[in-house]
Amino acid sequence: MRSLDSWRPRRTRTLAGAAALALAAPVLAACGSDGPGGGGGDALEVWVYQDGATVIQEDLVERFNESSDIDINLTQVPGENYQDRMRTAMGSPNAPDIFFNWGGGSISDFVAEDMLVDLTDVLADDEEFRDAFLPTILDAGAVDGRYYGIPMRGVQPVILFYNQTLFDEAGVQPPETLDDLFSLVETFQERDITPSVLAGADPWTELMWLEYLLDRQGSSAIFDRIRNGDSSAWGEPAVLEALENAVALVDAGAFGNDFRSVGYTTDGASTFFAQGEAAMHLMGSWEYGNQLTNQPEFAENDLAWAPFPTIEGGSGDPSAVVGNPTNYWSVNSNVEGERLDAAIEFLKMNGSEEYAQDLIDNGDIPATTNAEDLIASSPNPEYAAFQWDLISNASFFTLSWDQALPAAQAAPLIDAIEQLFSGQLSPQEFVETAQAL
Predict the structure, then answer these.
(1) For residue 405, how many other CB atoms are within 10 A of its CB?
(2) Which residue ranges make up each domain of the chain?
(3) Residue closest to 330 by CA, chosen among 132, 124, 133, 95
(4) Which residues form the signal peptide (predicted)?
(5) Smallest Cα–Cα separation from 84: which of 149, 11, 10, 17?
(6) What is the pTM assigned to this prediction?
(7) d(CA 118, CA 224)
(8) How many angstroms separate the CA atoms of 431 and 279, rounded?
(9) Which of 415, 105, 111 has its CA nearest to residue 229?
(10) How much is the mean pLDDT over the chain?
């Protein structure tokens, strides 16, 4: 088993607000290395989100610099308000040449302003490069059907985690349908156990339920229309049905009575779950690493996982998943000539088997097609195989709504979700609010 430090959770969700453009330039931690090019004015400035996984990007940059005439200077940007800081820099003389992002809405404003290199033709002209990545992951980061980002970290699907011991004691199985889920709510309430912990103090956790409920009810095509600018899709009957199902789960006691005071970033929800107070937890794949780090006995003896259930009569494909498909590298459109050629070569290294193995060794599942051959060497092959099957068989991978939508829409949408789960907005009022965005 790999050391627990390697499983430290690495994901922080941030929302860029309108005030981002007024922020001062951030203090950044630089981590460069001199290679044949010796740095200098031709060096490529690369920004990455600073967390426990950046050691992988450090190694990648070191390998690149050993063979390239143009160096890369890697800058680790502190995770807090990363998007705000990145937005402040773009368009300024301090803008990075290559930078970490979430694809979709997180870069759509830059695309609209022609600030990014369109990589569509690069992928089309190099089939080996294109085919190195899972198509659903590439597509999830696209903007208007064009590719402006290359996958650079592991996949992050949202998974229904559950306590195997509590399920065994109750004589039940993980839910296959929404009706099964409601039945489990009754079963665990009778046993004085919260059916599913929900960190309502961090409303992006509530978003996960809506994402899956809509996906299963009306298919991923509905939100795909929304993220492509069709606000009328919020008025689809499946949206209202998904919202009503979410409210029905709240009213049925699926999340207990005090979920709005439970946080995730403070580890409250995960601890509550690990202590046997809740039977289920819908959370991103990083939850396993979080539990293995903080509650290793629970992670090794009780923690189990399953796909989100289907909805009988729904038109969604049960193989579809939601979450953060991965993170992406994008290239500033100011990068030209030999520097652009070097940037493309750096991007291609992210599809290599060597880089995929680095991700596997760190407990991640790469967004590359060769991952299946490598997962046996993962610190937890069983969990790795489950994730691989989930994402490789997915008909569609919906990017988290708050990352897929432009910042001006994402922040008020999260507010509306919080109001829906707290009873301040009815499902119909939510639809009207979303359409007005």
Answers:
(1) 24
(2) 4-155+326-395, 156-322+406-436
(3) 95
(4) 1-29
(5) 17
(6) 0.79
(7) 21
(8) 31
(9) 105
(10) 89
Structure token digits, residue 204: 């992006």
Antiparallel, parallel or unpaired: β 150-151 and 397-399: unpaired
Q: Is residue 145 packed enough to be buried (19+ CB in 10 Å), middle (13-18) or exposed (0-12)?
A: exposed
Whether 29 and 78 have beta carbons less than 8 Å apart is answered as yes
Task: Scan for tokens 């696209």, then name that residue.
Answer: 142
Same fold, 4-155+326-395 and 156-322+406-436: yes
Q: Give the residue carrying structure tokens 């903080």.
A: 294
Is residue 358 within 8 A of residue 59, CB to CB? The reply is: yes
pLDDT in tens, 21-72: 333 333 445 554 333 333 446 999 999 998 777 889 999 999 999 999 999 9
Give the model confidence (pLDDT) of 264-301 as tens digits.
988 899 999 999 999 999 999 989 888 888 899 999 99
Q: Supply the pLDDT for residue 82.
A: 83
Contacts of 316 (CB under 8 A, 6+ apart): 214, 215, 216, 217, 218, 219, 220, 310
| Residue 157 DSSP code | E
CATH architecture of 4-155+326-395: 3-Layer(aba) Sandwich (3.40)
Side chain identity at residue 34, one-letter code? D
- Residue 319's closest CA among 391, 383, 386, 382? 391
Chain centroid, CA 73 distance in Å: 26
CA distance 112 to 428: 32
β-pair partners for 330: 99
The amino acid occupying position 295 is Q
Q: Starting at the earlier edge strand, list the strands of the sheet with 29-32.
A: 29-32, 72-78, 44-50, 98-101, 328-331, 150-151
Of the candidates 421, 420, 230, 422, the residue with the CA atom closest to the CA atom of residue 430: 420
β strands within 111-234, DSSP E: 150-151, 156-163, 194-197
DSSP-based three-state secondary structure for 410: helix
List the one residue out of 390, 389, 413, 386 whose CA is nearest residue 400. 413
- Measured CA to CA, the distance from residue 437 to residue 433 in angstroms comes to 7
Lowest mean pLDDT among 16-25, 129-138, 255-264, 292-301: 16-25
Alpha-carbon gap, residue 222 to 236, rounded angstroms: 8
Domain spanning 156-322+406-436, CATH architecture: 3-Layer(aba) Sandwich (3.40)
Question: Is the Cβ–Cβ distance between 337 and 117 less than 8 Å?
Answer: no
